[in-house]
Each structure stands twice: as structure tokens, then as C-alpha cells.
């Protein structure tokens, strides 16, 4: 039985098609698979590789790039801070009193980004159960909001 040989041009074409497919599909997955296929095309121009070796190289390069994408770029705290800006303008009740340079928690009537309780701070002293409005996201992590009385 003859081994299946896939030409370098097929790998390069596959890489270009996958990279172009990223324009139409969300999620940044296809671009990494396409770059992996292009790397296989480049390596196979210099070395004679079996199909299994090419598949392992493609999976390894694509998997590594995908893991780096999620670790370095997607798991970034500034991304969470950007999403936390969705809390701006919402109102909630303070769970305990808060003052300048003190932290408290605010409870919203419905969950925002999966949480109905958020850490908060205020520039002025406010008693417990005060109705407050979110005016800013504090810190790079985006895990705390600044509140003002309504």
C-alpha cells in the first residue's frame, strides 16, 4: 500500500483558505490552524516528510499557537475590565456601609456578567442599603466599581 503524499502546495492552499475563512467566522480559531498549515508547507519544502509527520507538525504548531492565544491575549485582565464597563449606569443596594478608602459590596437586582454582587468603593461615606449607581470601573482587573448615591 502506497503512503499518501500531500504536496506542499496543498498545505499552503489549506493554510490560506483557513486564514481567509477567519474573515467570515468569529473566534480566532481558523487563523491558527491556517498558520499551522503554512508552517507545514514551509517545512515540507526542505524535508521529505510522511503524512503522519505533517499532521503531527500541523497539530503541534496549531495547538501551541491556539494555547498562546488563549493564555496571552484572551486571558488578559484588561479584557475583563472592558466587559465590566457594562455595569456603568446600573443601580443597586450597598450590602454594608462604605467610606472613602474603604471597600464594600453592591447587590444588583439581576446578575451583570454573571454576578449580582460586585465589590465597590465610593468617594463619600454611604450607609448600608443605600441605593447607588455605578459611575466607573476601578482598576485594571475590572473587579470593582465606583458608586455614587442615586
Automatic annotation (TrEMBL):
Keywords from UniProt, A to Z, are: Membrane, Transmembrane, Transmembrane helix
Q: Which InterPro entries match?
A: Membrane_assoc_protease (IPR052165)
- The membrane-spanning stretches of this chain are 6-24, 55-73
Q: Is Transmembrane among the key words of this record?
A: yes
Name assigned to this protein: NfeD family protein
* Species, as recorded: Uliginosibacterium silvisoli
